[in-house]
UniProtKB/TrEMBL annotation:
Protein name in UniProt: Peptidase C39-like domain-containing protein
Keyword Cell wall biogenesis/degradation in annotation: no
InterPro entries to which the protein is assigned, alphabetical: Cell_wall/Cho-bd_repeat, Peptidase_C39-like
Keywords, in A-Z order: Repeat, Signal
A Pfam short name: Peptidase_C39_2
Peptidase C39-like domain sequence ranges: 268-390
Signal sequence segment: 1-44
Keyword Signal: yes
Protein species of origin: Lactobacillus porci
Length: 434
């Protein structure tokens, strides 16, 4: 409107040139801009503290927009370096380098907090999110009593007894508290499902039982728990249950309880006199690894052996291994005929925890061609087999040196000697228990 008026006057008067109208206009506009700038600056100078602008919370200090980290009324906040917008949630700081968390009001959190269903722990002083194994010291008080002297008499005084306990927690790289079995620096640990405390001892993990030492690390192989031997798988640490195990050079079977059970030596002479019953006595030794037994008299009496087992005079020869296997299956289906296996194969079977019944020679024999005696291999170590022979009255009986294969009731025998006894000739036999 001002521009129109000036131009109109100039047009009528003709004394002032048109270009002067532009100079006047510029002056007017400049004056307006300066006035607006000063007004805006004055308005900004009036701002202080938290302000919401266009739906974004910012912070002014002495009229200046704050950026970066700022301590306000004892609380730490973070404002965007460019826009000044107040930050919330997880934030990665570069100086100092750490991950922290700001709540909905922009305040940095400290201590333990549950966020979106997960527990996190932030250092009390720096707010830094913790990761990895953390040791927690818990202080508790309980009522206790002590005797004190009062006026020359002993009286019971109640007081609060302070106790300290420590436990460990594990926070993953993302800061979340972990539960269950976790692998940390190549070692497995277990954090219980209730409070996430690192737990030791025998624990049920899924469907398996596993064992964790005092330092929390999962154990494998042979372990002694409350005086009982147990075995835990090398790959997953699961306790063996109803499985064969080879420990310290000897064969064992893990019972339903997980406790390892070794074979029991049996005699063909006592408590039942069966001088030709070596196959039944050795089968009883084989089956005993499962902590199972059968009626020995019944087994002796019904064995389909020529001449029976109760008389040496009528003995007609040892049963073929296939026939003995079929007969013993009535007591346990695990009896398996492996006759024809190489010595290396038999060694491998024994080293997998399975004892092996084999045919050889008794201490009474003088001819070494047809095998007429059954023994059991129950261990293997340093090139030797541990052999149980039923042809003795006591488990402590040693060799009587009647022949080269008179080892005694229990003896470590070189595999070379075993090979000479068990291979070649007639009526070879080998039976394992599955």
């Amino acid at each position: 409107m001002l521009l129109v008026s000036v131009q109109f006057i100039l047009a009528i008067g003709g004394k002032i040139r048109m270009k002067k109208s532009y100079s006047l206009l510029a002056a007017v506009l400049l004056a307006g801009s300066v006035s607006g700038f000063l007004a805006s600056k004055a308005q900004a100078a009036d701002k202080d503290g938290f302000v919401t602008e266009n739906g974004v919370t910012v912070y002014y200090e002495n009229g200046k927009l704050v950026h970066g980290q700022k301590r306000i009324a004892g609380k730490w906040y973070l404002f965007d370096e460019q826009t000044g917008a107040m930050q919330t949630g997880f934030q990665k700081l570069t100086s100092p380098k750490k991950t922290v968390y700001y709540d909905a009001k922009g305040r940095m959190l400290y201590g333990k907090h549950k966020i979106a269903g997960y527990w996190y722990w932030f250092e009390d002083k720096s707010g830094k999110m913790k990761t990895g194994l953390q040791t927690v010291t818990k202080i508790s008080y309980k009522t206790a009593y002590k005797w004190v002297k009062k006026r020359g008499k002993l009286v019971k005084k109640k007081y609060k007894k302070k106790t300290k306990s420590k436990y460990k927690l594990y926070y993953a790289a993302n800061g979340q508290l972990q539960y269950g079995e976790k692998k940390i620096k190549g070692k497995w640990y277990y954090f219980n499902k209730k409070n996430a405390h690192m737990t030791t001892g025998l624990q049920t993990v899924g469907k398996a039982k596993k064992y964790y030492a005092a330092n929390g690390q999962r154990q494998t192989g042979y372990q002694k728990i409350k005086g009982k031997g147990c075995y835990f798988g090398k790959k997953n640490g699961a306790m063996y249950v109803k499985k064969f195990a080879f420990v310290g050079g000897r064969d064992y079977y893990a019972l339903a309880s997980g406790v390892l059970h070794a074979p029991t030596w049996h005699s063909q002479f006592t408590p039942i006199w069966a001088p030709e019953g070596c196959s039944v006595a050795s089968s009883a030794t084989l089956l005993s690894i499962k902590n199972k037994s059968f009626n020995m008299y019944y087994a002796y009496s019904h064995l389909p052996q020529s001449g029976g087992v109760f008389s040496m005079a009528s003995f007609g020869g040892l049963l073929a291994a296939s026939t003995l296997t079929s007969y013993m299956k009535r007591f346990d289906s695990g009896f398996t005929n492996i006759t024809g296996s190489s010595v290396a194969k038999i060694k491998a079977v024994v080293q997998s925890g399975h004892p092996v019944l084999y045919y050889g020679f008794s201490r009474y024999e003088t001819r070494f061609y047809r095998k007429q005696h059954a023994k059991v291999i129950v261990g293997c170590k340093k090139g030797r087999f541990l052999i149980y022979d039923p042809c003795y009255y006591s488990a402590r009986s040693g060799s009587s040196h009647r022949n080269a294969f008179d080892y005694g009731a229990k003896a470590w025998v070189s595999i070379a000697t075993f090979t000479r006894e068990a291979t070649g000739g007639l009526n070879n036999g080998a039976i394992m228990l599955k």
